[in-house]
């Protein structure tokens, strides 16, 4: 009888806490809800008090303005291109490097890995100035190469994958060697499939950081047709600085793709950030 | 079918197999090592060289002139550097503790006392995946001084003279901090929850047998065993907070005046608005040293408060 009462109390207590935290959660996404709601309003209604979360009069012209110049399509394509190449390159180079450091025997391997790992301590913000000069001399300043090429060589990915590769029992690859398989085949047919979860983790982290990257395009790009969504959105805002409804429409358009990726992979997405370290 | 003879290769064949493996190894690490050397190590060395020189960009390498410690000396009397350092420290020492306490409270409750835990965790995490440009634009609109929703609300509840937030020199940095707390706390929650989940149930069960109540269990088991996660968050967020740039560049551009300058924005300002590459490089080194100092300090202090065994 008493235990029953306690269980009931626990249930109601839990429900109460859930409601409180759900309200906190709603408050937390409130700025984003306001953004969406405002993007469908007429400018005169934007700052009306109290806030109308569902617009009285719907205005779709804001989105027409966003897409009218066609620039946002360019920003989309640029961002997709840069992100895709950077992520694939990052995965590929991180994978082969991590494979060598984890499973191949060669002289100086551990020393090399230690020195390599130490470069993780060098923040991008510290080396931006010489990178600008370097890119100018290499002739890749104001091109997309300046964004995705350096992004491919990422120490963190090597570190993450090396851990995953090391945890795969060596018996598997030794058996394959005896069967006459080369390193490439071992890598692609045995190691890669077994480390798939870590791969996806790294892919999502790399995707997010490249997609949301602002400082690199801001500094290395000057032609607006090359802009990615982040710098493009800022330019768009400067051109429409007095029109909040239109700016919010632009912001919604810029955020939709990553929100879709997040919703589709949400559980996995959050887990990825647990394994992340330096990123973010 | 493999016979015994096939399985034991002659020593010559064995050697060549080892050599092939080593060769593959070098081949596989080469692209990444070369890339890191060109795009990370070389620029770091260049930052060092540049910080001791003046560079007339238009004249190419001929325009390079060594000025010894001049840039470093100049930093001491530079108002922008002074403000930036102060703002960076203010940012780190308010944003990190506030976010951490908020996240610790929420995740402690989330961990045990709710239904739909993972759904709630997902909602809290949403702000973290949005880009700083988008976030800054939304917050600038929300905190618009004259008619923005936040100030409207403040006036309605009796604050007749609410602050100007991003466009007020006394509030610009605080506004950026508030925005950063909103953006980041979900990430902390995810890390802390993972830390709490990894604590063995047996410890709690043993404590219950000894008659420990919820409060005792939390302070004697949960918190101590969470210290590695807390340490990780502190190290990462200290580094990130010293590198803060995006929010500032979009929301305030260092303003009003120079009131929200931070170190990275100062580097950007000198390098890409005034094209003073030498001086900007010296500031970049200052930034690097500050980051290194705080990271090393935290590694040293961890022995005093982080539990690794149990």
What's the layout of helices and strands?
The complex is a heterodimer of chains A (280) and B (310).
Chain A: H1 2-39, H2 61-68, H3 71-103, H4 109-118, H5 128-138, H6 145-152, H7 155-166, H8 170-178, H9 183-194, H10 196-211, H11 215-220, H12 229-239, H13 244-264, H14 266-275
Chain B: H1 4-7, H2 11-51, E1 53-55, E2 64-66, H3 70-76, H4 79-112, H5 117-125, H6 132-142, H7 149-156, H8 172-197, H9 201-209, H10 214-242, H11 246-251, H12 263-272, H13 277-305
Antiparallel strand pairs in B: 1-2
Helix pairs in contact in B: 2-13, 4-8, 4-10, 5-8, 8-10, 10-13, 12-13
Description:
The complex is a heterodimer of chains A (280) and B (310). Chain A is mainly α and 280 residues long. Chain A folds into two domains: 2-60, no CATH class; 63-275, MetI-like fold (Orthogonal Bundle), CATH 1.10.3720. Chain A is built from 14 helices and no strands. Chain A has helices at residues 2-39, 61-68, 71-103, 109-118, 128-138, 145-152, 155-166, 170-178, 183-194, 196-211, 215-220, 229-239, 244-264, 266-275. In chain A, α2 (61-68) packs across α13 and α8 (170-178) packs antiparallel against α9 (183-194). Chain B has 310 residues and is mostly helical. Chain B folds into two domains: 4-51, no CATH class; 72-305, Orthogonal Bundle (MetI-like fold). In chain B, 72% of the residues lie in helices and 2% in strands. Chain B has 13 helices and two strands, in the order ααββααααααααααα. Chain B has helices spanning 4-7, 11-51, 70-76, 79-112, 117-125, 132-142, 149-156, 172-197, 201-209, 214-242, 246-251, 263-272, 277-305; strands at residues 53-55, 64-66. In chain B, α4 packs parallel to α8 (172-197), α4 (79-112) packs antiparallel against α10 (214-242) and α5 (117-125) runs antiparallel to α8 (172-197). Chain B is flat and about 75 Å long. The relative contact order of chain B is 0.12. The interface between A and B is large, with 91 and 95 residues.
């Amino acid at each position: 009888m008493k235990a029953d009462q306690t269980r009931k109390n626990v249930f109601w207590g839990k429900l109460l806490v859930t409601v409180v935290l759900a309200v906190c959660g709603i408050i937390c996404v409130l700025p984003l809800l306001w953004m969406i709601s405002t993007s469908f309003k007429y400018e005169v209604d934007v700052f009306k008090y109290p806030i109308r979360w569902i617009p009285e009069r719907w205005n779709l012209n804001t989105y027409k303005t966003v897409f009218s110049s066609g620039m946002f399509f360019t920003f989309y394509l640029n961002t997709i291109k840069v992100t895709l190449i950077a992520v694939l390159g990052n995965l590929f180079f991180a994978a082969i490097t991590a494979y060598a450091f984890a499973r191949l025997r060669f002289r100086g391997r551990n020393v090399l890995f230690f020195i390599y790992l130490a470069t993780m301590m060098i923040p991008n913000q510290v080396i931006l100035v010489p990178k600008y000069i370097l890119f100018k001399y290499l002739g890749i300043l104001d091109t997309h190469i300046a964004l995705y090429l350096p992004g491919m060589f990422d120490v963190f990915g090597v570190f993450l994958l090396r851990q995953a590769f090391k945890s795969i029992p060596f018996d598997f690859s030794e058996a394959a060697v005896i069967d006459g398989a080369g390193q490439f085949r071992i890598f692609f047919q045995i190691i890669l499939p077994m480390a798939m979860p870590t791969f996806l983790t790294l892919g999502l982290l790399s995707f997010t950081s490249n997609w949301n990257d602002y400082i690199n395009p801001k500094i290395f790009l000057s032609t607006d047709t090359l802009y990615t969504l982040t710098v493009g959105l800022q330019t768009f805002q400067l051109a429409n600085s007095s029109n909040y409804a239109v700016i919010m429409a632009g912001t919604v358009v810029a955020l939709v793709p990553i929100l879709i990726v997040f919703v589709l992979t949400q559980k996995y997405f959050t887990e990825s950030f647990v394994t992340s370290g330096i990123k973010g | 079918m493999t016979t015994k003879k096939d399985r034991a290769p002659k020593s010559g064949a064995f050697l060549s197999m080892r050599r092939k493996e080593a060769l593959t190894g070098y081949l596989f690490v080469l692209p990444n090592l070369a890339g890191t050397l060109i795009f990370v190590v070389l620029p770091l060395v260049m930052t060092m060289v540049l910080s001791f020189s003046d560079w007339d960009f238009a004249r190419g390498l001929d325009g390079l002139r060594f000025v010894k410690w001049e840039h470093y000396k100049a930093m001491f009397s530079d108002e922008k550097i002074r403000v930036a350092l102060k703002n960076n420290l203010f940012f780190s020492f308010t944003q990190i503790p506030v976010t951490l306490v908020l996240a610790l409270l929420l995740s402690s409750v989330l961990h045990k006392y709710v239904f739909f835990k993972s759904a709630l965790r997902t909602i809290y995490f949403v702000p973290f995946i949005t880009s700083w440009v988008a976030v800054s634009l939304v917050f600038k609109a929300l905190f618009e001084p004259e008619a923005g929703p936040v100030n409207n609300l403040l006036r309605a509840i009796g604050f007749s003279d609410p602050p100007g937030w991003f466009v007020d020199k006394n509030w610009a940095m605080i506004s950026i901090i508030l925005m950063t707390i909103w953006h980041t706390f979900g990430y902390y929650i995810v890390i802390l929850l993972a830390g709490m989940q990894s604590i063995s149930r047996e410890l709690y069960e043993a404590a219950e047998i000894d008659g420990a109540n919820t409060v005792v269990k939390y302070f004697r088991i949960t918190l101590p065993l969470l210290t590695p996660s807390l340490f990780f968050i502190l190290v990462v967020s200290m580094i990130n907070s010293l590198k803060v740039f995006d929010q500032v560049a979009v929301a305030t551009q260092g303003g009003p005046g120079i009131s929200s300058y931070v170190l990275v924005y100062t580097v950007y300002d000198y390098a890409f608005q005034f094209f003073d590459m030498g001086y900007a490089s010296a500031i970049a080194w200052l930034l690097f040293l500050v980051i290194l100092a705080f990271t090393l300090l935290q590694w040293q202090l961890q022995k005093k408060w982080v539990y690794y065994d149990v």
